Every structure is written in C-alpha cells, then in structure tokens.
Amino acid sequence: AQTVTQSQPEMSVQEAETVTLSCTYDTSESDYYLFWYKQPPSRQMILVIRQEAYKQQNATENRFSVNFQKAAKSFSLKISDSQLGDAAMYFCAYRSDMEYGNKLVFGAGTILRVKS
Amino acid sequence: DTAVSQTPKYLVTQMGNDKSIKCEQNLGHDTMYWYKQDSKKFLKIMFSYNNKELIINETVPNRFSPKSPDKAHLNLHINSLELGDSAVYFCASSQVFLGNSPLHFGNGTRLTVT
Q1: Does B110 touch chain A (CB under 8 A)?
Q2: B41-70: per-residue pLDDT in tens?
C-alpha cells in the first residue's frame, strides 16, 4: 500500500491566487513528521515546510501553510499569493522514528503551474 | 559555501562501465543518504549512513556500493552500469537520524547510461 498519496498529478493557479495541494498518508503511529519539498526545474530539492504530528497548530512559513488533519491522515499545502517562482514539483513526505525504518518516504509529487 | 554538494552534476556513460558519484556536506550532520529519482520523478531511498555506519540498505542491486570515509562524505560507486540505472541520484544529509531532522539535499546527479 502507498504510504504517501498525492492525488493531484498536476495543478494550475493564476499568479496572486491561492492553491491547495493535497496529501494523505497511511500510518498506525501517533508520533511522526510530515514535510513538503519543492523541486523547481533546476532539480534542487528544497524544504518548504514541516509539521510534527504532536503539534495541533498548523505550520506556517510566510505564504506557505498546511492544513494538518491528524484523524483524517491528511496534510495539505496551501500557497497564498502564488508567484511565478512557485512553479515546481511539490512532494509530500512522511517520516516516523517507529515505522518504515525511519525512512523519509515521498509521495509521487504534484506539478504546480503558475499562470501570469 | 554549498551545504550538500555532489559531483558530477551530469554523467553520461556506456553500459558496462563503472562510475562514482561523490557527495560532501559541510553542515556537520551525522547522517547521510542516497536517493534515486526515476523518470517518473519518484524518489526512493537507497542507502543511509549514520556516523559512517550503514543503517539503511534498501533492495538495490549489489552493483551499487556506498562508501563513507568520514561522516562528511558519502560516495556512491556503481559497477557494470545498465540502461535502467539512468536516473537522477540525490545525496542528502540530516543532523541526526531522527524523524524530526529534515533532510538537506544536494542538487542531484543526472546519470545517463547509453
């Protein structure tokens, strides 16, 4: 079974608008960590935001925020005021000290296109 | 002052050759990783070293051999290259081998086997 599922292969957003990328994951653990990474055409993998499962408050980093729904095992990324530089592939990732050998497991990615 | 640097950036070689990819991190991290990104952009871990000790060894062909001379370096040697080895290989590091320690990635090495 897929550990991390990103159901949207591609998304588009108009510049300055808001877009939400979806991610769900499968776990039996209560303590784990979730991440969003961005991969622009330059190929570099850039950490966007992270969330500890024990924290109820949703993480925020400037224009990037998450909606963490622990019971639903959902971890969506919201990008506000989208900019052309946000165009990239976005990967959701899961890691637990107690599961999957503490490996960082990635979803299949969502391509985000930003229209001017 | 690149945090995680890997060389070369591009590698084009013929089937059957042996090649190496080097990785160095100057972050003082204890843990280093190799990930493979296939043509569909899927990222999968291959190896992980913590303080020079191998701790994750995924099901990869034994033609792939990692080597960590010290905790700042993790190199990947590939013997008898095959067409299916063509991919982007990422080196990464994290401060410790714990879930809350995010990975910092290098810029990747695009390996093309012809």
Answers
A1: yes
A2: 999 999 999 988 888 888 789 999 999 999
